[in-house]
């Protein structure tokens, strides 16, 4: 019995050491839905809607993306006592491909900008923009230090809108009214 006791104690210590060494690491980031309140550090996010665009602006000055412009409309507000930086975001597809937020917001309606700060109890609302293929994505957002992250599920939807097309003027033969004499 005296010999068996030290062996059992050594075995128990080994099992505990193995269990401690096989920890699962940091918790997996939570995935939220559109419209849900997400609190990360001192920033509170609400992702409102998405929109796909084939160009920004119009005419010869229109910006054309490599893939498609993907606009994500959101609110970000500070929950601390001072202004809190809102970090850059990315969209991640189901295959793990990541597309970072664009730094040029030219012609983006209500663009949030790239250097932005959330003021306490004041909502910063607008669009962030990505150049990405039309797919299902999750928006990757983080707290001010990027230590805590979360994802927002962005369903793949297209709105049905028909752009107004201007018809080219057709040339009519030179018609002159006939006068009765």
CATH fold-type name of one domain: Immunoglobulin-like
User: What are the secondary-structure elements, in order, as H or E?
Assistant: HEEEEEEEEEEE
Poorly predicted segments: 165-171
Q: What distance separates the N and C termini?
A: 137 Å
Enumerate how many helices there are, as a single number. 1
Structural class: mainly beta
Bin the helical content: under 10%
Tell me the radius of gyration: 28 Å
CATH architecture of one domain: Sandwich
Q: Note the quaternary state here.
A: single chain
Please characterize this protein's 3D structure.
The protein is built from one helix and eleven strands, in the order H-E-E-E-E-E-E-E-E-E-E-E. The chain is globular. The chain has a domain at 31-154: Immunoglobulin-like, CATH 2.60.40. The chain is mainly β and 181 residues long. The protein has a five-stranded mixed β-sheet, with no helix packed on it.
For the structure shown, list the relevant keywords.
181 residues, 10% helix, globular
List the helices and strands and how they pair.
Layout: H1 4-21, E1 31-32, E2 37-40, E3 43-53, E4 68-78, E5 84-85, E6 90-93, E7 98-100, E8 117-118, E9 123-132, E10 137-142, E11 149-154
Summarize the structure.
With 181 residues, this protein is mainly beta.
